[in-house]
Automatic annotation (TrEMBL):
Binding residue positions for [4Fe-4S] cluster 2: 188, 191, 216, 222
Main location, first listed in the record: other
Name of the protein described by the UniProt record: hydrogenase (acceptor)
Family: Belongs to the [NiFe]/[NiFeSe] hydrogenase small subunit family.
Residues holding [3Fe-4S] cluster: 231, 250, 253
GO biological processes: anaerobic respiration
Subunit architecture: Heterodimer of a large and a small subunit.
Limits of the NADH:ubiquinone oxidoreductase-like 20kDa subunit domain: 17-163
Entry keywords, A to Z: 3Fe-4S, 4Fe-4S, Iron, Iron-sulfur, Membrane, Metal-binding, Oxidoreductase, Signal, Transmembrane, Transmembrane helix
Reactions the enzyme catalyzes: H2 + A = AH2
Compartment annotation: Cell envelope
GO molecular function, one term: metal ion binding
EC number: 1.12.99.6
Residues of the full protein shown: 50 to 317 of 369
Length: 268
C-alpha cells in the first residue's frame, strides 16, 4: 500500500448535513491524517480544504485535468435532479447536478458516501420538495459503489478507499452496490441481543424490566432484521458501542427505505 501512487480524490458535497465528513474524521484505521497525508491526495473537499472560493474551484479543475480517467469522485448528499429548480442547491453559482455531471465525466469511479448520496436519504423523503436523486439515479456510465449509512461507519469509507488503492478495482458489491465486506450481513445476524429474540424475550418499553435486562428491542421498532451494516461487529467511536448496545433500536439507516418505510419506533 505504501508503494502505491496516491490517487486523486475529489469529494463533492451536495444536499447533506456534513455528518458523513464528521464520521470520516473519526476513522482510526486508518486515521484521517494518515488517509489524506499518506494514502490519497484529497484535492477538493468543502469542509477539509484550506482553499476557498475561486481557488478551491480551480483546485478541482486542476485535479480533473491532471488525473484524467484516474481520479476518484466521492459524493455525499443527494442531488436535485435535472428537472428541478437548479437554485435549490448550488456551489460556486452552479447547480449540484451540473457539478456532478461535469466532475464525474473523466472519473475512474464514483463512491456515494452516506444514505443521501446512495439512495436519496432524508432530502428525498416524501414529499421530496427538491426532486432529490441519488448518484446512481443520475450517473449511468461509471462504476459506482454505495457506502450507505446515516452516517456510514468511518472505517467502511476508508476501507473502500484502501481496497481501491491496493487492488485497483472496486470490492465485491451487493445488489444495492454496497461492499459486501461491510454490508454482507444484517444487524440482526450479528446482534448480541439475538439470543433474547430467539427466546421470545422482548423489551416492551424503554424503561421496563426487559429493557434493563438488555432484552431484544424488536417491539420498540428495531429494524435490525432488515438492515445490512457492520455496526454489530465494528461498532462506533473506535469500537466503543453502537445504537443497540446503548439501548436504542436500529433505525435502518443504511437501507434505501430509511425515511419513508414505516415509523422509526414501530415494529415491522
Ligand atoms: Fe435483532 Fe434488533 Fe433484537 Fe438485535 S435488538 S436481536 S437486531 S431485533
Ligand atoms: Fe444505522 Fe442501525 Fe447501525 S440505525 S448506525 S444501521 S445500528
Amino acid at each position: 500500500l505504501e508503494a502505491a501512487r496516491r490517487p486523486s480524490v475529489i469529494w463533492l458535497s451536495f444536499q447533506e448535513c456534513t455528518g458523513c465528513t464528521e464520521s470520516l474524521t473519526r476513522s482510526h484505521a486508518p486515521t484521517l491524517e494518515d488517509l489524506i497525508l499518506n494514502i490519497i491526495s484529497l484535492d477538493y473537499h468543502h469542509t477539509l480544504q484550506a482553499a476557498a472560493g475561486e481557488a478551491a474551484e480551480e483546485a478541482r479543475f486542476q485535479a480533473m485535468a491532471a488525473n484524467k480517467g484516474e481520479y476518484l469522485v466521492i459524493v455525499d448528499g443527494s442531488i436535485p435532479g435535472p428537472d428541478s429548480n437548479p437554485g435549490f442547491s448550488t456551489v460556486a453559482g452552479h447547480s449540484n447536478y451540473d457539478i456532478l455531471i461535469e466532475t464525474v465525466e473523466h472519473a475512474a469511479a464514483v463512491i456515494a458516501v452516506g444514505t443521501c448520496a446512495a439512495f436519496g436519504g432524508l432530502p428525498q423523503a416524501n414529499p421530496n420538495p427538491t426532486g432529490a436523486r441519488s448518484v446512481m439515479d443520475l450517473v449511468k456510465d461509471k462504476p459506482i459503489i454505495n457506502v450507505s449509512g446515516c452516517p456510514p461507519i468511518p472505517m467502511a469509507i476508508t476501507g473502500v478507499l484502501a481496497h481501491y488503492l491496493t487492488f485497483g478495482r472496486l470490492p465485491e458489491l451487493d445488489a444495492y452496490r454496497r461492499p459486501l465486506a461491510f454490508f454482507g450481513q444484517s444487524i440482526h445476524d450479528r446482534c448480541y441481543r439475538r439470543p433474547f429474540y430467539d427466546r421470545g424475550l422482548f423489551a416492551e418499553s424503554f424503561d421496563d424490566e426487559g429493557a434493563k435486562l438488555g432484552w431484544c428491542l424488536y417491539r420498540l421498532g428495531c429494524k435490525g432484521p432488515s438492515t445490512y451494516n457492520a455496526c454489530a461487529t465494528m461498532k462506533w467511536n473506535e469500537g466503543t458501542s453502537w445504537p443497540i448496545e446503548s439501548g436504542h433500536p436500529c433505525l435502518g439507516c443504511s437501507e434505501p427505505s430509511f425515511w419513508d418505510a414505516g415509523g422509526f419506533y414501530e415494529p415491522l
